[in-house]
């Protein structure tokens, strides 16, 4: 990894399709709106053949970068499975963790905030010899954002993911409950349990980014402001 942003944030999910890229893009836009220089990186990405838009495209549009800088072309895998598995299925050499770290380069001068988005969930393979937890540990971020669905099963997924991450990093973890519906009693109970019983930093985000922290403010804008403080402090 060459260079380092003033604040480094890694976005991880409890699983696939929980909205990591959507949350990441919203955070990037919020930082840019505050006048901060940002950069986004996706060490490796896999997608279905024929997909018109990849995660790197979405992140690049939000950060103002070329998608091929967000994720290097050799790490684009058109097969919908974990990146090293996709590479193998395509007859390509799966990357090692050291390969992904060595390829991770930040702009100069260093951005105020750098965001790295992993693939899949916390224990999903990112390389032939490492998962997202291993990647986070190697990156040594200032803050980790864990994205989870707000519905049934999320308490288990969040607690398992937070526990796994804690084994590799001491960085504070902010949980984003995505697709949160304040009218859904289960969603409310899940948020309350994670915040009160598990003492986690939880941000609830509706489909349009609305939230309740504080009332009336876009929840991810509030979270972005906290994450962008020196050292990612809460």
Description of the structure:
It is built from nine helices and ten strands. The longest helix is centred in the first third of the chain and has 14 residues, at 20-33. α1 (20-33) packs parallel to α2 and α1 (20-33) packs across α9. Residues 209-216 have low confidence and may be disordered. The chain has a single domain, classed as Rossmann fold, CATH 3.40.50.300. It is of the alpha/beta class and 234 residues long. The two termini are 26 Å apart.
Known CATH architecture: 3-Layer(aba) Sandwich
Largest sheet: 6 strands, parallel
Helix-strand sequence = EHEEHHEHHEEEHEHEHEH
CATH topology: Rossmann fold
Structural class comes to alpha/beta
Number of domains: 1
List keywords for this structure.
234 residues, alpha/beta, Rossmann fold, 36% helix
Q: Would you summarize the structure shown here?
A:
With 234 residues, this protein is α/β, with parallel strands linked by helices. The chain contains nine helices and ten strands.
Write the layout of secondary structure elements.
Blueprint: E1 7-13, H1 20-33, E2 38-41, E3 45-46, H2 55-63, H3 67-70, E4 76-77, H4 83-89, H5 97-103, E5 113-121, E6 125-127, E7 130-131, H6 132-139, E8 143-149, H7 154-166, E9 173-178, H8 185-197, E10 201-204, H9 219-227
Parallel strand pairs: 1-5, 1-8, 2-5, 3-4, 8-9, 9-10
Antiparallel strand pairs: 6-7
